[in-house]
Amino acid sequence: MTTADTTTAPVPTQSTYQNRVADYWNAEENPVNVELGKIDDLYHHHYGIGEADWSVLDEPDPARRRTRITAELHRLEQAQADLLAGHLGPLAPTDRVFDAGCGRGGGSVVAHLRYGCHADGVTISRKQADFANEQARKRSISDKVRYHHRNMLDTGFRTGAYAASWNNESTMYVELDLLFAEHARLLRRGGRYVTVTGCYNDTYGRASREVSLINSHYICDIHPRSAYFRAMAANRLVPVHVQDLTDATIPYWELRKQAEHLVTGIEDTFLTAYRNGSFQYLLIVADRV
Prior knowledge:
By secondary structure, this protein is α/β, with parallel strands linked by helices. It has helices at residues 16-27, 31-37, 62-86, 106-115, 126-138, 176-186, 209-218, 225-234, 246-257, 267-276; strands at residues 96-100, 118-123, 145-149, 162-168, 187-200, 237-244, 279-288.
């Protein structure tokens, strides 16, 4: 396999906080992440978008109802992954893409299946990297899709090696200036960066109680919306498309709230934050200039 590596990053974490995050994901076995991925071996660590098929809640058989709800939530998550991947192109099979904070690897697989491109995913969780590489091996795509136990702020990958890169709900674990500096370094001129992220709404004021609860639940630090555009401008990333997905993700959370076998206890908090205007779900697409 052709690789973008030029150095071996010896230490995948850089701070006590990042070690705590790594510990969290090394131990994590949340059914809402694991059970959905078992449907087609596409494991996502993000939320869904689009109108839900509410008929799944009318299923009278308890076991079948559970199966149908799980499948519908996975369909909505896959729709989100497809939306993000659709903004990465056009890409050729010879191009390389970078999945920052790749989780169990579903996003890199989606990009490869869509474009035939090479993909490098990075996570500070050794467990996630090992799991994702095993999934790539089972799919017989490990020659083109590879996962690394590294820090997305300091990957050690070759400068200008990537045609596209993205974060899917992982920017809230890092400082944006450091993150976008690394993306700008890795992307070739004219390369495309995409993120889907939750952010707090500056027009609401400071972070709301609900945003603080989400931070505590996921051990993260949600950024204000404005911080994304300031940090991008400082790091040669020029937004070309911004889409508010807040309304589009509410059906996912409404359905997940009623999935007794998948709830995590944070569902009402997300719904309240979206509806009171303090929290937004955004797609941001930028070109590296």
